[in-house]
Design goal:
alpha/beta, Enolase-like, domain 1, TIM Barrel, 2 domains, four-stranded antiparallel sheet, 14 helices, globular
Length: about 400
């Protein structure tokens, strides 16, 4: 019997509960170079994820798949409601490649990157969740099965803050069994040489706590210019980082390639890149040492699975951005995905932790590893009602 798409529902979850104040110099971002007199004084304001898009794909045989996206959720909802839903109602969900191409090609004039592709990603993830439920299998089984018994993961927090509290947080992750963790830089080009010194102090503070047997990574979140990145790399190359993440804006692919070729520290990127075509360019230009797409941006599971295969041919590992279960299923099914990112449960701060408040069933790390339940069909998550009072929900 066919499983026909009966309905597609896009819901906008907006957090109205308490928000934890962030530190000064919390994290670099591409907006740091702007004139602060003419923009919000909160440098992270345009990068906060205080709303979330949830997509439900319902089939005629009673299965409901869940997908989601955090980037620009309000316009993404409009794309789903006005373009994607009408295009795929009546399709057999097992024709997922045809469905993806239909969504992609009918929105190609304006949707190939950014908002359009993020909306497609949310729908595609929901389709795969529904496929798993129809088949009675977890998604990773549909993608090829387990390539490892459990997923090593790294604690991804350690935002820039006073060095004493940074050390305390790093010690907490060490005590929880993590063998890898990632910090964020707080200073960029506008801060000059003094900011460069402070960035290095962040690395050395964490390293002094965790020792040399723990992998340490650092994230710039596109907050440096190419010139500043070159200056910083002379210092960073002595700090034994596993990788430096997004040192320049995502469009500067030649800048990534130059940094990768001239520095000893591996360069990672791809969090803000889209589709198989975008990653072909990154890989052919030898721009990154680590591929970091996010499944709910890059085009969903249908595209992420293809990009994993492409990256494997280049022997460039895939370590998806963000600690959500759709990324875990992709990583479990790929021999080329050695470790996954893990966002610890945390009071709402910039919003990238909101998935903990929206869904039940997100895997929790234990001794630095994630295990996926083979008895749960689909992605293994459901909508939670625990924090509903803290959300406005637009249907």
């Amino acid at each position: 019997m066919k499983s026909i798409i009966k309905d597609v529902r896009a819901k906008l979850y907006t957090w109205k509960g308490p928000i934890q104040k962030i530190h000064d110099n919390f994290c670099t971002s591409a907006a740091d170079l702007l004139n602060k007199e003419n923009i919000n004084a909160d440098g992270m304001s345009t990068f906060k994820f205080l709303s979330w898009l949830v997509v439900e794909v319902e089939t005629n045989d009673g299965h409901i798949g869940l997908g989601n996206a955090a980037l620009s959720p309000k316009p993404c909802k409009s794309v789903v409601d006005n373009y994607l839903k009408p295009a795929i109602i009546g399709e057999d969900i097992w024709d997922y490649e045809h469905i993806w191409q239909k969504m992609y090609r009918q929105t190609l004039a304006w949707g190939r990157k950014g908002v359009g592709m993020t909306a497609i990603s949310a729908v595609d993830i929901a389709i795969w969740d529904a496929l798993g439920k129809v088949a009675g299998q977890p998604v990773f089984k549909l993608l090829g099965g387990k390539t490892k018994s459990k997923l090593p993961c790294y604690a991804s927090k350690l935002y820039s803050q006073p060095l004493d509290t940074l050390a305390i947080e790093a010690k907490e992750y060490l005590d929880q069994g993590f063998k890898a963790m990632k910090l964020r830089f707080g200073w960029g080009p506008k801060d000059g040489a003094e900011g460069m010194r402070k960035n290095i102090e962040l690395i050395r503070t964490v390293r002094s706590v965790v020792g040399d047997d723990v992998d340490l990574m650092a994230d710039v979140y596109m907050g440096w210019t190419f010139e500043y990145a070159k200056r910083m790399m002379r210092l960073i190359d002595n700090e034994n980082l596993r990788w430096l993440e997004e040192p320049v804006i995502a469009d500067d692919i030649d800048g990534y390639a130059d940094l990768k070729a001239s520095c000893r520290t591996p360069i990672s990127g791809g969090e803000h890149e889209y589709t198989l075509f975008g990653f072909r360019q990154l890989l052919e230009k030898k721009a990154v040492d680590v591929v970091q797409f996010d499944t709910n941006r890059v085009g969903g599971i249908t595209q992420a699975h293809k990009i994993c295969a492409l990256a494997e041919a280049f022997q460039i590992p895939v370590i998806p951005h963000a600690g959500q279960v759709h990324n875990f299923h992709i990583s479990m099914s790929s021999i080329n995905a050695p470790i996954v990112e893990y966002f610890p449960f945390w009071p709402v701060e910039i919003g990238n932790e909101l998935f903990w408040y929206i869904f039940d069933g997100e895997p929790q790390a234990k001794d630095g590893h994630i295990e996926l339940d083979e008895t749960k069909p689909g992605l293994g998550i459901e909508l939670s009602d625990k924090y509903l009072k803290d959300f406005d929900i637009e249907i």
